[in-house]
Amino acid sequence: MLDRRHMMLALGAGLSTGLFPSITLAQAAGKVPVDAKSVLIVVDVQNCFVPGGSLAVKDGDQIVPLINRIAKTFRNVVLTQDWHTPDHVSFASQHGGRKPFEVISLPYGEQILWPDHCVQGTEGAQLVKGLDIPHAQLIIRKGFHKDVDSYSAFTEADGKTSTGLGGYLKQRGIQRVFVAGLATDFCVAWTAMDARKQEFETFVIEDACRGIDTQGSLAKSWEAMKAAGVQRIQSGDLAPA
Fold first, then answer.
1. Catalytic residue among 118, 142, 185, 220
2. What is the model's pTM?
């Protein structure tokens, strides 16, 4: 499988997808059923990631009404929150002389340095006020370990520390994972690819996501997701069972 470090480097050096197994899955055609064995994972729709936030994704706020509507068709919904310590290792401010978006080496691999964001208990870390999914059953907080970053809802950036989400979903009989949120080319992509690693049928709802898209990172993340067996759909493709 592709080393996780390549996804961290998507803002700079680029991402190679040649190491993925050869899995050919066409973009999902027709309607995709949403049933009791399906879950919607809403990734990091937080104040820091929408316009006005410290790590804003362009038009990130525009997906909120669509996610609210989509969520109503799912019995099962999980939300995620980036939840960093004030001195988190991924913050450029913790590395003297370093600037955001530079890349450094850490014990678990290459790490992009970010502006301070989603610090535990701050307004920036809160879910966007307009997000309205009262029936969500679980919130997964990630990135709360000071010395390791975490993009995926399933596994932290060291590739081995589990959030427990996979076991939770399997014990509930979930078979199909649908992913929406921010940002497409990082936390959404990593979540979707880790869902595939855990053998869930996985879909990313493209119009319910927004990406950073720097130096081709968005296209590269879609290539990586396709190679991993993630299916790319639109919200209009969903069909409540």
1. 142
2. 0.88
